[in-house]
Design brief:
The complex is a heterodimer of chains A (about 280) and B (about 120). Chain A has about 280 residues and is α/β, with parallel strands linked by helices. Chain A is built from nine helices and nine strands. Chain B has one domain: HPT domain (Four Helix Bundle (Hemerythrin (Met), subunit A)), CATH 1.20.120. Classes of the chains: A alpha/beta (about 280), B mainly alpha (about 120).
Chain lengths: ~280, ~120
C-alpha cells in the first residue's frame, strides 16, 4: 500500500520552528518534514542549546523531545532534560507564549500527560505521521496567532500595566470585591454631528477623539471597558488596583476636558462630560 | 509483526516525505548512530546503568521504526520496557537479539540507500 500524504504542500502561513531532540535521526527527519511543509526550521541537539536559541531569536513554535537525558550517564551525554526545557519556557514571560508540542513514543503517555499539565500545547507520537504533523502544527500556529492578536488588542485598550497584569494572570470570571470607580463620557449632540457630515468624517472624528480620550484615561491608570458610538466607559481600580481610584478618575476626566478643548479648536464638536463621575463603587460580588 | 526486515509501507511513507539526497543522509546517520546506541546498551548493561540502557534502547526503537525496521524496533522496545520496569534482568538475550537483527538490517539499508 502506498500512502502518499501531501507532505510538500505549502501551509497557509509558514512559521519559524525549533526542533529540540538529542536523537539525530529524529531531528533530521522532523526538521525536513517541517521544511517541506514550508516552515523555516532550526535544530537543537540538547535542552540547553534549545533554551539558548529560544532566548536569542524569536520562534513561533517548539517541538520538544521529552526523552532527553538530564545528567551524564556513560555516553548518553549531558544536557537539560525535556521537562526542564518545558518548565523554563512556560515560566519565562518572554517565552511562555511560544507553543510547545511534545514528541514522544506511544509508550510514554504518562510523560505526555505530565507535560500537558505543565503547559505543553499538544503532543505527537513517533514515528510521526506527516498528515497529523501538518494539521497539529498549523492548528498550534493558528492558535498562537489568535493569542498574539488578542494581546495586541488588550494593549490597545488597556494601560501597559493593566495589559501586563491581564496577560500574566489571564482572564477570569469570579466573585471579587473591589474598590473602584467607573467613568462615563460622550460627545454632546453626537447624533446631530453625524447627520451633518459624511460618515467618513465621523469615523475620522471618532478615531481622533478615541486616541485622545484613551491617552488621558490610560495616563491615570484607567482602562477603557466599553465603547458605544461616542460613548466611553472606563474603569479605575479594575482589574489592577489603584491607590485612589476616584481621584485618578477625576484627574483623567479633567485631562479629557483639556484634550477636548484642544480638539475643539480643530473640530466643530463639543463634548459633554455627562458623568465624569467619581463614584465610590459598590462592592461587586 | 512483519516478518520482513523493512516494512514496505513505512518505507514508502518515508520516501514520500523526503527527497533522495536527504534519505541518503538519514540512512547514513542511522548507520552511524546505531552502533553507538548498541555500544551504549552494552556498556550500560555491564555497568548496571538501567537508565542508559533504557534510553539507548528507546532511541534505537524510534529510529528503527521510522525506517520501517519493525522487527528491530520490536526487540529494542522489549529491551526498553524491561529497563523501564527498573531491572536489567533478562536484557542480555534481548541485546544479543538486537545485534543479530541489526547485522541483518545493515546490508538491506545499504542497498536501499544505493537505490536512492
Amino acid at each position: 500500500m502506498n500512502a502518499n500524504p501531501s507532505f510538500g504542500a505549502v501551509p497557509t502561513r509558514p512559521g519559524r520552528l525549533l526542533v529540540i531532540d538529542d536523537n539525530k535521526v529524529m531531528r533530521l527527519l522532523l526538521a525536513r518534514g517541517l521544511e517541506q511543509q514550508g516552515h523555516s526550521v532550526a535544530m537543537a541537539e540538547n535542552g540547553r542549546r534549545g533554551l539558548e536559541m529560544l532566548r536569542a531569536e524569536p520562534f513561533d513554535l517548539v517541538l520538544l523531545d521529552i526523552q532527553m537525558p538530564e545528567t551524564p550517564a556513560l555516553a548518553c551525554g549531558a544536557s537539560v532534560d525535556g521537562y526542564q526545557v518545558l518548565e523554563c519556557v512556560t515560566s519565562d514571560r518572554a517565552l511562555r507564549d511560544i507553543p510547545v508540542i511534545i514528541t514522544s513514543s506511544l509508550d510514554e503517555m504518562d510523560r505526555v500527560a505530565r507535560c500537558i499539565s505543565m503547559g505543553a500545547e499538544d503532543y505527537m507520537t513517533k514515528p510521526l505521521n506527516p498528515i497529523l504533523l501538518r494539521a497539529r502544527i498549523n492548528a498550534s500556529l493558528e492558535k498562537k496567532r489568535l493569542r498574539d492578536q488578542q494581546k495586541e488588542l488588550i494593549r490597545k485598550f488597556a494601560s501597559s500595566e493593566v495589559a501586563d497584569d491581564l496577560l500574566a494572570k489571564g482572564f477570569s470570571l469570579g466573585g471579587q470585591t473591589i474598590q473602584a470607580t467607573v467613568l462615563f463620557s460622550d460627545i454632546r449632540s453626537f447624533s446631530t454631528i453625524t447627520e451633518s457630515q459624511p460618515a467618513s468624517d465621523t469615523i475620522e472624528l471618532l478615531n481622533n477623539y478615541y486616541s485622545l480620550m484613551f491617552e488621558a484615561i490610560n495616563e491615570h491608570g484607567g482602562m477603557v471597558n466599553q465603547m458605544l458610538g461616542d460613548g466611553i466607559m472606563a474603569l479605575f481600580g479594575i482589574p489592577a488596583p489603584l491607590e485612589n481610584p476616584a481621584q485618578s478618575a477625576v484627574y483623567a476626566a479633567l485631562e479629557m476636558i483639556e484634550m477636548v478643548d484642544l480638539f475643539d479648536q480643530q473640530q466643530a464638536a463639543s463634548v459633554e462630560r455627562r458623568s465624569a463621575l467619581a463614584l465610590g463603587s459598590p462592592p461587586g460580588r | 509483526m512483519s516478518e520482513t526486515l523493512i516494512d514496505p509501507e513505512a518505507w514508502e511513507i518515508m520516501k514520500s516525505m523526503t527527497e533522495p539526497a536527504f534519505l541518503v543522509e538519514l540512512i547514513d546517520t542511522y548507520l552511524s548512530d546505531s552502533p553507538d546506541l548498541i555500544e551504549q546498551m552494552r556498556a550500560g548493561l555491564a555497568a548496571g546503568d538501567i537508565e542508559c540502557v533504557r534510553r539507548a534502547a528507546h532511541s534505537l526503537k524510534s529510529n528503527s521504526a521510522s525506517f520501517g525496521a519493525t522487527r528491530l524496533a520490536g526487540v529494542a522496545r522489549e529491551l526498553e520496557m524491561i529497563a523501564k520496569s527498573g531491572t536489567l534482568e533478562g536484557t542480555g538475550p534481548k541485546l544479543a537479539a538486537i545485534e543479530v537483527e541489526y547485522a541483518q538490517l545493515l546490508p538491506v539499508l545499504v542497498e536501499l540507500k544505493n537505490e536512492c
